[in-house]
Amino acid sequence: MTAMRGWGGWAWLVLGGTLLGLFAPGLARAQQAAELDYPLAIAAGPAGEIYLADRNLPGVWKLTEGKLTLVFQGAKKFRTPLNAVRCVAVDAQGRVYAGDSATREVYRFNEQNQPEPLAHAATGTGVGIPMAIAFDKEQNLVVADLEFPGRVVRIPAAGGEPVQLAQVNAPRGVTVDGEGRVWVLTQGKDRQVVRLLADGKVETVVEGQPFDFPQSIVLDDEGHAYVADGYAKAIWKIPAGGGEPVKLVEGNGLLHPDGVAIHKGELLVVDPKVRKGGAKEGATGVFRLTRAGQLTPVGLTP
After folding, report:
1. DSSP string, 99-157
2. If we measure between CA atoms, which residue out of 186, 294, 176, 283 comes closest to residue 235?
3. What is the C-alpha to C-alpha distance for residues 12 and 20, in angstroms, rounded to an integer?
4. Which residue, among 180, 218, 117, has the nearest Cα to 165 in the 3D structure?
5. Model-level pTM?
6. Tens digits of per-residue pLDDT, 137-186?
7. Are 41 and 258 in contact (CB under 8 A)?
8. How far apart are CA 283 and CA 269, in angstroms?
């Protein structure tokens, strides 16, 4: 059997003069050598499996019982799917989504783990910088688009033209409560959490700038909101019904928490600098966080 170099870096695999097929040695080596590098967003599936958006891979990982598996690895080439992945989400059916600023698109992974574009924008604008994805009661996507000046859009569950719900300055995170209200985390100067109401009004939840560098937001089933704050090395809690945000945990192993998610009442946090810094062998940058503020790292099983 002989491997012969062919067009575009692909190799011809030949046995006894018969062409068996093509393969890309460089791509195969890259995939074999793939490692979790800079996980900046996190989501949980129905069974508790954890999905991570890895900005530097680039791509999406699945973490189950201490084992990492690669869902999809994008290319290093700009304007290719997930080259600049920003967020990951899982819907009620367990389907996985990712937002990518390199292609200005939001993708849903099919059964073969291939990304399929959903933001079919007739204008060609797409979703500039999709920073977070949530779902409304009809399972339509609600997306925070950071591209200046910032907006929140809705994309039909089946895919289609993004429809602007509101212009919101510098939106970083988004989540939807049981009443269908859309909560938006921003890096604005005068208010950092707002709610979009069904009548189109925008109400302020958190005034001023209590957060240093807010990254993401999630709600629990009691209506409390949680915010990952990178610069403060903290997770904040916003009490249900209003009130001043309080730090649920600060430091204690956190270096720059970016993503926060929830599964069956348990908070999940991802900190890319914990993984990137190689705090210890087997570190993933993922933590479990109780509502009492107890932080436990989620490591890899040897």
Report:
1. EETTTTEEEEE-TTS-EEE----TTS---SSEEEEEE-TT--EEEEE-STT-EEEEE-T
2. 294
3. 8
4. 180
5. 0.88
6. 999 999 999 999 999 999 999 999 999 999 999 999 999 999 999 999 99
7. yes
8. 13
Amino acid sitting at position 189: K
Q: Which residue has the tokens 């348990």?
A: 266
Alpha helices in 164-281, H assignment, sequence order:
272-277
Beta strands in 159-224 (DSSP E): 163-167, 171-176, 182-186, 191-196, 202-207, 214-219
Distance from C-alpha of 108 to C-alpha of 76, rounded to nearest angstrom: 20
SS3 breakdown of the chain: % helix, strand, coil, rounded to 5? Answer: 5, 50, 45
Kindly state the tokens that stand for 200: 């189109």
C-alpha count within 13 angstroms, C-beta hemisphere, residue 292: 2
Task: Say how far apart CA 177 and CA 212 lie, in whole Å.
Answer: 24
Residue with tokens 């591209």: 147
